[in-house]
Amino acid sequence: MVVGVCQLQLALQDVFSLKEKRSIVKRLTGRVRERFPVSIAEVGDNDLWQRSRIGFAVVGNDRAFVNEAIDKIIDAIEDMYLADIVDQQIEIISFNL
Q: Could you give the CA distance from residue 53 to residue 87 in angstroms, rounded to a whole number?
């Protein structure tokens, strides 16, 4: 079993309230969920208007598959043009049970 975890720090442009921010983050996470079989949520910077941290996880049986899935999800988030990715952290762990 291989587990891939990714955390993205996002910069949100032209956002002036938490309500606007949450709307964008909800739209972004919803679109990712519809398109990919992943768990995704806002995991940090909850009270900052123009910043957000989201995290998602991918599980598979092949390291290359998990890495490719993470790359596709990051590309899809960039292609939505809802937020700019400022930083990303990726960790892929193999479990041999």
A: 9
Domains and CATH numbers, the chain: 2-94 (3.30.70.1120)
Residue 78: half-sphere exposure toward Cβ, Cα within 13 Å: 10
Encode the chain (97 residues) as per-residue pLDDT tens digits. 999 999 999 999 888 999 999 999 999 999 999 999 999 999 988 888 899 999 999 999 999 999 999 999 999 999 999 999 999 999 999 998 7
Token reading at 79: 């292609």
- Read off the amino acid at residue 13: Q
Beta bridge partners of residue 41, listed in sequence order: 55
User: Which pTM value belongs to this model?
Assistant: 0.90
